[in-house]
């Protein structure tokens, strides 16, 4: 059956071409159905064999079956190739470069005031100081009188102090914690008192609420030399070993002698805080005999220290809580 075999060759060539052209598994499935399926053209050829001369049926049947197997094998090959290509494409598309920096998840951080406050606390607890606390709404007595601040002292002025009903004030400094901590206690002791304070002030370098840290130590033979040594070490801890500090004579009603401490930072002297030897009258006001005991005290702004440390020019930038600013200080 020469004609039948020619048909077969043409059909097989057509099938090979269609398989090669199939670009997807779906397209290949259709090609398969067309040639290899029950209703496909090869099946039709096989069905036609019955009509042939008996001696032709065997060889033609074998030829058709052999062609069918070749087409089937080719289709399988093609399918494997298509799947392989798809996988390669998908790998290329979803390629993951593990060396790229990751997207940082948003995480919180400590506020610069908290960072500095924690360092301050860490430094002083390391020297054996304990932490004392006091209320932000304070009596006028603790805030001023007990600290030897005379009734006509300018710091009591309406322009500085927020007065609260009932003769109380929002504490203008952390020094009243000295009174609370010393009253009823017998020296020796050393305390720090970090906390919020309030003043009627509002400009680029002043906010109505800010933070101070108070420190004081009372013992039988505490001297100004201890004060200077402790504060110099404190400055080194916050600003590095090379920091220079200086003490300038000053006046505070609650210390005698009194000084201000400055430190050298970014090519200039910056005021840091006040300090001195606790005034005998303050000790007496707390029931401590100044003939037997003496101590030093100091107080400085935590916000100011954080601003100097991190180069923040305006206190409101730091206290307003804008995360775009705070994120730069980590
Ligand atoms: N209380 C002072 C202020 O707010 C700071 C201060 C100065 C505290 C001298 C002290 C000190 O303990 O000895 O400005």
Question: Secondary-structure blueprint of this entry?
Answer:
Blueprint: H1 2-21, H2 25-36, H3 41-48, H4 54-93, H5 112-126, E1 130-131, E2 137-139, H6 140-143, E3 163-164, E4 168-170, H7 176-182, E5 189-198, E6 209-219, H8 224-239, E7 244-252, E8 255-265, E9 268-278, H9 280-285, E10 294-301, H10 302-310, H11 315-319, H12 323-326
Parallel strand pairs: 1-5
Antiparallel strand pairs: 2-4, 3-4, 5-6, 6-10, 7-8, 8-9, 9-10
Helix pairs in contact: 1-2, 1-4, 2-4, 5-10
Bound molecules: 3,4-dihydroxyphenylalanine (DAH).
The name of the CATH topology of the largest domain is BirA Bifunctional Protein, domain 2
CA-based shape = rod-shaped
Q: Main sheet, how many strands, which sense, barrel?
A: 7 strands, mixed
Bound molecules: 3,4-dihydroxyphenylalanine
Give the beta-strand count.
10
| Major sheet: arrangement of strands | 1-5-6-10-9-8-7
Look at the helices and sheets and give the structural class. alpha+beta
> Helix and strand string, N-terminal first?
HHHHHEEHEEHEEHEEEHEHHH
Instruction: Give the second-level CATH assignment, the architecture of the largest domain.
Output: 2-Layer Sandwich
| Low-confidence runs of at least 5 consecutive residues | none
Structurally, how many domains make up the residues?
Answer: 2
- What count of helical segments does DSSP give? 12
- The CATH class assignment of the largest domain is Alpha Beta
Relative strand content: 15-25%
Helical fraction equals 40-55%
Task: Provide the CATH superfamily of the largest domain.
Answer: Bira Bifunctional Protein, Domain 2
Mean pLDDT: 92
């Amino acid at each position: 059956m020469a004609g039948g075999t020619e048909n077969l060759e043409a059909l097989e060539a057509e099938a090979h071409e269609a398989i090669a052209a199939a670009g997807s598994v779906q397209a290949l499935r259709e090609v398969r159905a067309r040639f290899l399926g029950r209703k496909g053209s090869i099946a039709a050829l096989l069905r036609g064999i019955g009509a042939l001369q008996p001696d032709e049926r065997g060889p033609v049947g074998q030829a058709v079956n052999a062609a069918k197997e070749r087409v089937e094998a080719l289709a399988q090959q093609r399918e494997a190739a298509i799947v392989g290509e798809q996988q390669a494409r998908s790998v290329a598309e979803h390629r993951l470069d593990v060396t790229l920096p990751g997207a940082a998840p948003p995480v919180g951080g400590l506020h610069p005031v908290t960072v500095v406050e924690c360092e301050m606390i860490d430094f002083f607890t390391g020297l054996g100081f304990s932490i004392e606390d006091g209320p932000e709404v304070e009596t006028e007595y603790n805030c001023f009188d007990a600290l030897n601040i005379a009734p006509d002292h300018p710091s009591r002025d309406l322009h500085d102090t927020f007065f609260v009903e009932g003769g109380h004030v929002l504490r203008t400094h952390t020094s009243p914690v000295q009174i609370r901590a010393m009253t009823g206690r017998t020296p020796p002791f050393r305390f720090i008192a970090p906390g919020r304070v309030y003043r009627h002030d509002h400009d680029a370098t002043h906010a109505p609420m800010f933070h101070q840290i108070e420190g004081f130590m009372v013992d039988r033979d505490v001297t100004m030399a201890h004060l200077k040594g402790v504060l110099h070490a404190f400055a080194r801890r916050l600003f590095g070993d090379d920091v220079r500090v200086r003490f300038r004579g000053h006046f505070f009603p609650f210390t005698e002698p009194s000084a201000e401490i400055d430190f050298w930072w970014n090519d200039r002297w910056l005021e840091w805080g006040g300090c001195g030897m606790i005034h005998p009258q303050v000790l007496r006001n707390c029931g401590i005999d100044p003939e037997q005991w003496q101590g030093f005290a100091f107080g400085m702004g935590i916000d100011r220290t954080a601003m100097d440390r991190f180069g923040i020019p305006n206190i409101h930038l730091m206290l307003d809580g804008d995360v775009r600013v705070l994120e730069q200080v980590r």
